[in-house]
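Researcher: Before we compare anything, I want clean individual predictions. No alignment, no superposition, just each chain on its own. First chain goes here; please echo the sequence and then give the C-alpha cells.
Model: Echoing the first chain and its structure:
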Amino acid sequence: MPESFVEIESVDLAYDKESGNAIEDVSLAIREHEFIAMVGPSGCGKSTFMKLCSGLLPPSKGTVVVNGRPVSGPLKIVGMAFQNSTLLPWRTTLQNVLLPLEIVEPYRSSFKQKRAEYEARASALLKSVGLEGFEQKFPWELSGGMQQRTSICRALIHEPEILLLDEPFGALDAFTREELWCALRDLQAERNVTVMLVTHDLREAVFLADTVYVMSSRPGRIVRRCEVGIPRPRDLEVSYTQQFQDVVHELRQLIGGQH
C-alpha cells in the first residue's frame, strides 16, 4: 500500500527461544494521520507490537517500515505515553513536558538558546489540555488525570509524527477517562498525528479510533480489522447509540472467543 505510513509485514517477535513467539505473522498497514487501536486479551502482545513500531524491539522475522524506511533502531519521530504517567517527581509540570527537548535532537543542541520559545510551546500545549496555571506544580500536586494530560503533552512536545499510547487511561476513574478521551480526540485533530492506542477498554477504542485491530491470545495474531464507521469528530453522546454499542459488542464477542 503506497499510501501507508507504517507497514508491518509478516512479523514474528520472540523475546527468547524458550518462551516462543510473543506475536506471530502480524501484518497491517496504517495510513498517515490514522488513529488505530489494538485490543485483545491480557498478554496477547499489544504492548510488544507497540515496541516494534517504535524501533525499541527488532522483529525476529518480517519487516517494519515507517515512512518508506525500514526501522533499524529507536525512532525520533515517535512520542510515547504509558499507563503510569512516569513523570519525574523533582520536576515541575512545565519541566516534565520540556524533557524530550533536552534529550532529542535537533532540539537538544539549541535548548539553552531557545529555552523561552520552547517554554512558550510547552505552556500552549498544557493550556490546550486544560492545565493552564499548573505549570509550576509538581506531579504529587496533580490528580491522576492531570498527570496523564502532562504525560501526553510531554509525548507531543517534540512534534512527533507517531504517538504511541499504552493503556494511558487504564488507572483512571470512568469520568476522568472520558474527559481525557475528548482531550486526546481534540489533540489528534489539531496536530494531525498518527496514533496507535493499546487499550483494554473497548468503548475507548471505538470512541477514539478509525480502525480497531483485535489480537488473539499469545502468540498474538491479528484476528480482525474493524473499521469504525462512525463519523469523526465524535462526542460522548455517540457512545449511547445503537451503532456504537453494536461495534463494542462485536469486539467483545471476538475477544471473548480468544480465552
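Researcher: Okay. Second chain, same rules.
Model: Second chain and its structure:
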Amino acid sequence: MTEPGKGQTPETLPLYGRRILVTRAPDQAPALRNALAACGAEPVVVPTIQIVAPASYAELDQAINGLAEIDYLVLTSVNAVEFFFKRLSVLGHDTASLDGVQVVAVGPKSAEALSAHGLQADLVPDDYRAEGLVALLRERVSGKRVLYPRAALARELIPAELAKAGAEVIAPVAYASTPPEDAQDKLSQALAEGLDLLTFTASSTVDNFTNLLDRANLDLARQVPVASIGPLTTATAEKHGFNVVIEPENSTLDDMVEAIKKYFSGTRNAERGTRKEP
C-alpha cells in the first residue's frame, strides 16, 4: 500500500477498511488496485476477463499491409494499441508506416500507450467514449478510409456511424477476451468474506462476472453497491440487476477513484484525504 500522506495515518485515509472488488484483466488490474490501496482500501483483485489473441490475425494483417491507403487509425483501448503494434512489428513494419495517417486515441490512457511506441495521438475526443470519438470524426471522414482495430465483442457503433458519415471503415478483430479459469472460485470466496463495493470498467467484465456466479452468489452480489466506469457499463450492470451508485463524469480510472472516495467519505473528507501541504 502507498504510504499515507504527511500527517495521515491509515485510519484517516478516505477508503480505510473498505473491501473493494477489482474485476479488470490481470495486466490492467494493478492501476486500479494501487489507486484504491493508496486511499486506504483493501482491494480484492479477481479478474473476470483476460485478454487473448483473436481466432485469426488474417484481417488485421491485411489491413496493416495496406496502411499506405489508410487515412485514420482509430484506437479505442490500451489493448487495441498493444495488439496493433505487436502485429505491426511481426509483419516487419515500424511506426514510419503510419506517416500520413491521422492517429485517433479514444482517451488519455490510449494516448499514453501510443507514446510508449514513440507516437503522439493526433486527435483525442473530449468525451472518452465511442460516442465522443464518433462526434469528433463525423465531419472529417467523408471519402476517407478508416482503420479501426477492435475487440471481438466491440459494439458496432463506431464502424456503423462512421460509415454513415461517408467513410470506408475497415474493422478487423485485433484481440478477444475470455474469463480466467479460476475466477469462479475466487469470486465466491470474495463474496463470502464480504465486499463493500464492486467495480466494473467494461461491459464484458459485468457479463462475465454474472455468468461466473451461481444463483445464490449472484443474489449476494446484487446486494453490494457498484461503481461503473461509464454509461455503457452502467447500463449493462443495471440490466443484470446490480445497484450502480457510482459513475464518474469522465470515464477514466482517476475520476472513478475520486467518485468512489466521495461516495464513501463525502467530498469534504475526500479532498482532505488527498490535500498536500503548499
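Researcher: What stands out in the second chain?
Model: The mean pLDDT is 91. Additionally, The radius of gyration is 20 Å.
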